[in-house]
């Protein structure tokens, strides 16, 4: 799989409402270890890369923008509908911004949370140096 990919999950609608599915075997190239979601977001989120962790970010509701750097260039993705998703491999810088008031973003991670943040790269210049090493 690529270092990153942006795609839309299948949407099923009928008179009862709408349902979006995520088949882990088809769309998630790792074994999920953690789920979290963010909402009521007032400021930029992310702004880091991971040395080993892979993540899948899914729009549940609202709109927001993802800006990622794959070590060579920036890529921007606008989430505008439930089920839009962005896969990030390790060593992909990611940040999220422009959240609508009703935005909810789900994140699925390949690792458990490390409160010491040992596997994080928090400085963009260090990320570029480490990526090119």
Detail the topology: elements first, then pairings.
Layout: E1 4-8, E2 11-14, E3 17-20, H1 24-27, E4 34-39, E5 45-50, E6 55-61, E7 64-69, E8 74-79, E9 84-88, E10 93-97, E11 104-109, E12 120-121, H2 124-132
Antiparallel strand pairs: 1-9, 2-3, 4-11, 5-10, 5-12, 6-9, 6-11, 7-8, 7-10
Report on this structure.
By secondary structure, this protein is mainly β. The protein has helices at residues 24-27, 124-132; strands at 4-8, 11-14, 17-20, 34-39, 45-50, 55-61, 64-69, 74-79, 84-88, 93-97, 104-109, 120-121. A 5-stranded antiparallel sheet has the order 1-9-6-11-4, with no helix packed on it. Strands 8-7-10-5-12 form a 5-stranded antiparallel sheet. It is globular, with a radius of gyration of 15 Å. The two termini are 22 Å apart. The mean pLDDT is 94.
Task: State the end-to-end CA separation.
Answer: 22 Å
Record the strand order, biggest sheet. Answer: 1-9-6-11-4
Q: How many helix segments?
A: 2
Question: Helical content, roughly?
Answer: under 10%
Which oligomeric form is depicted? single chain
Instruction: Please write the string of helix (H) and strand (E) elements.
Output: EEEHEEEEEEEEEH
Largest beta sheet, briefly? 5 strands, antiparallel
Mean residue pLDDT: 94
Number of strands: 12
Instruction: Give the uncertain stretches in residue-range form.
Output: none
The class by helix and strand makeup works out as mainly beta
Strand residue content: over 45%
Radius of gyration: 15 Å
